[in-house]
Amino acid sequence: MIYLVKRGFGYMKGKPILLMAASLLLIISCDRKEPQHSLSVNNNTKQIVFFSDDEALEQEVSYYDAIIELKKAYPEEMKNMKILSAAELDEYSNIFEIDRCPALLVYYRNRVIVEIEGKATTEEIVAPIANVLSGSS
Question: Is the Cα torsion angle 75, 61, 122, 85 positive or negative in sign?
């Protein structure tokens, strides 16, 4: 500190900046908000959620075909479909009980009402989802 005084900087001139920096660091480190999720769900709307694995796209062909068919038949219901990655499986395990990708589900009023997971044909995917989206279930 003696060196700073001799150089003309003065000890007191740097103190406010140091205090502000320390306060900012303390405020940032104490902020313990819950992590923001990319999934926002309206409980009065049937929400379609697709879990996809970028490393296994060839296993998801029937899911893509099913999604295309569902979008043609139910454009309004499918327009807000959420696509989540395999990396997000753990993040959403408290909401959805999905063990693996691919998976397509319908979430409505705080529960999963249809779930297709793993290997499935296009028809095995479309039929139960269409049944729910058409209001038959």
Answer: negative
